[in-house]
Amino acid sequence: MRLLANPLVFYIPTHTRIALLRSCLSHYADAKASSPRKALAAALGLGVITIERWDLLKNHIGDENLEKLLELALRVVPERAREILLKDLEKHRELLEAYLKGP
């Protein structure tokens, strides 16, 4: 296991990982790729089965692969990726504020 260059990946929850995945898949579908999953798998250096299992919520996107996915999303769908990440950050802020207020 390699040391991750981007510690942000440790704080990205499953639903945000899936939103980034689906945004990348949409990018490849819009680009008229014959198989968006295959195109995404090639871009990430992974197998199509891996992408399929993520998309079907059968496997969790691990931190190492999320780092690759995040880098790709920021390259191919930068505005959408930024929107997804900022929405996630806002949700964390709201939850933390509610928690700190107490019952």
What does this protein structure show overall?
The chain has 103 residues and is mainly alpha-helical. It has one domain: 434 Repressor (Amino-terminal Domain). 70% of the residues lie in helices and 0% in strands. The protein is built from 5 helices and no strands. The protein is elongated and about 50 Å long. The relative contact order is 0.16.
Short structural description:
With 103 residues, the protein is mostly helical.
* First-residue to last-residue Cα separation: 42 Å
**What's the CATH class label?**
Mainly Alpha
Query: How many distinct domains?
Result: 1
Secondary-structure-derived class:
mainly alpha
Q: Spell the H/E element sequence.
A: HHHHH
Low-pLDDT windows of residues: none
**Helical coverage, percent range:** 55-70%
Shape: elongated
The count of β-strands is: 0
CATH architecture: Orthogonal Bundle
